[in-house]
Amino acid sequence: MTSTTSAEPTRRDFLYVATGAAAAVGAAAVAWPLISQMNPDASTIAAGAPIEVDLTPIAEGQDIKVFWRGKPIYIMNRTKKQVEEARSVNMSNLPDPQTDQARVKEGHDQWLVVIGICTHLGCIPIAHEGSYGGFFCPCHGSVYDTSGRIRQGPAPLNLAVPPYAFVSDTKIKIG
Ligand code: FES
């Protein structure tokens, strides 16, 4: 009798423990894919991660093109003359009025950073082309100035400025 009563709880305990363990394993199996799905996959990280760009190889008057989130980004080291031209423009002559100062970072006035996608239908404009010395879009003839502002043609808006910051005098982080 004694042995029966002592054996019974033992068997029941085992069943509880076994059931509990199975439930815990089941919960973990359900939870893991949910937790796993919350992490961006590698291609998402690659596509959206900020990039750092060393500016030292870009001579005055030249530009480079880099890619961020699959978009071409122009980084232009403007000459003093180009900056002066961009700043001497009468705002009333601009289809999308914006001062040059609002499009660059204070203290780094020579550096223009813009997304190289025409705001008309998305072609990639050519740098240092067009009658304003900024960008020319060969698709339908939009002309942008040395601040990337639209001056002629069908494009309605200035070239967009991506989010970026100077991490040192010679390096920027885009994104
Ligand atoms: S896409 Fe650039 S002018 Fe049309």
Helical region count? 3
* Mean pLDDT reading: 84
- Secondary-structure-based class equals alpha+beta
Bound molecules: FE2/S2 (inorganic) cluster
Please state roughly what percent of the residues sit in beta strands, choosing from under 5%, 5-15%, 15-25%, 25-35%, 35-45% or over 45%.
Answer: 15-25%
The major pleated sheet works out as:
4 strands, antiparallel
Cα-atom radius of gyration? 30 Å
Distance between the termini: 76 Å
How many strands? 10
Overview of this structure, please?
β6 (133-136) and β7 form a beta hairpin. The protein is globular and about 35 Å long. It is built from 3 helices and 10 strands, in the order ααβββαβββββββ. The protein is an alpha+beta fold and 175 residues long. The protein is 30% helix and 25% strand. The structure holds FE2/S2 (inorganic) cluster. The site of FE2/S2 (inorganic) cluster has 13 residues, from loops.
